[in-house]
Amino acid sequence: MPAPLTARSVENIKPDPSRRLELPDGALPGFYLVVQPSGAKSWAVRYRAEGKPKKFTLGPYPRLSLGDAREQARTALRLASEGRDPAAMRTAAEREAEASTKLRFGSVVAEFIERYAKPRNRTWPETERLLTKADLAPWQDRDLRSISRQEILAVLDAIVERGAPIQANRLVAALRRFFGWAVERGLLDASPVASLKPPSAEEARDRVLADGELRAIWLAAEDIGYPFGRAVQLMILTGQRRSEVLEAEWSEFDLERRLWSIPRERAKNGTGHVVPLSPLALELIRGMPRVGQGQQLLFTTNGATPFSGVSRAAERLSNLAAEYLNSDPGGVLAPWRLHDLRRTFATGCARLGVSLHVVEKTLNHTSGTFGGIVAVYQRHEFLDERRRAMNVWADHVADLIRRVPQLVEPAETSYAA
Prior knowledge:
Elements: H1 7-12, E1 21-24, E2 31-35, E3 41-49, E4 52-61, H2 66-81, H3 86-102, H4 105-120, H5 124-132, H6 149-161, H7 165-184, H8 211-224, H9 228-238, H10 242-246, E5 253-254, E6 259-262, E7 273-276, H11 279-286, H12 310-326, H13 339-351, H14 356-362, H15 373-377, H16 383-402
Antiparallel strand pairs: 1-2, 2-3, 3-4, 5-6, 6-7
Helix pairs in contact: 4-5, 6-7, 8-9, 8-12, 9-11, 9-13, 14-16
């Protein structure tokens, strides 16, 4: 009669490199510890079903303890004594659980992000955020098929009522793509957002910051400091997109040659881009700390992920900038957003005499002057011209910082960015 297995004996059993071991439990006939030549251990039950010997693997040790494994074995042996096959019953239950998991909203969203969003759009993290966080967090364990149009409308109404109509529009767009994909994959018969219109009208923005506003924002960013304040200052000096700046990596910068190379994987239009750095931008970058063990990211608080919490930081920045501006005669900071810095850069460069085609090349535009057939045949990068433009703009910004506060309205012409 074999001795009962104990926690200590299970832990101390050594593998035989030449063969697999099956060690019976003296306390429960039919229950075994299986030890592979590699040393891996697992639990199994041997029984008969329909007159045939069967083996049922319960799980690995130590993830499944001796006590829990023995209890599961006792249940399996009881089922076998009643004429039921525990292995077949688990297989059916696992198939049902797998089918249910596959239709969980969160699981389908994860597949949508991997198969559809990531290969097509570099802004997929925002799509993922909209479909998994905040307003849709309670849906993650829901059956995809149970989500109704009425529930979607209730979520959208709540977003609009709290004063975020544009976010509601973005969520509609993300849900439309997601549910359309689910229909194409045969997971749904129809999309609950079909023909659903965005809840709020949007107007094309043409906000260009006045010189006094830009000065106030720079000074507020200086107060906030690294990482977000420095990121905003780099946006002001280079005119590059918010995500391209916030996700920048040290390896993209050649400080000796005064160049920043944004790879196509991070560029919104999928086209790699070289940004000449002005002396002021170079000074800003060289003064920043390198955070984290790998020291990979330019703007980070933990060294592992880019700076987050942009909305709260931007609100703080606006409040500080308003304090600077309100201290000036007639100074009031109207609502603005980070993307306006890019448009202000473009308009400001044109006002300072930079040619439109150089401005567009500096912004990495593939439309406008460089659209259509020109994009195919025009390969000149205008690097020298762009470097001069960056220097002219940086000198203008430096002059704003030094000058006596004065609100100067931008020229009427502005360039969408």
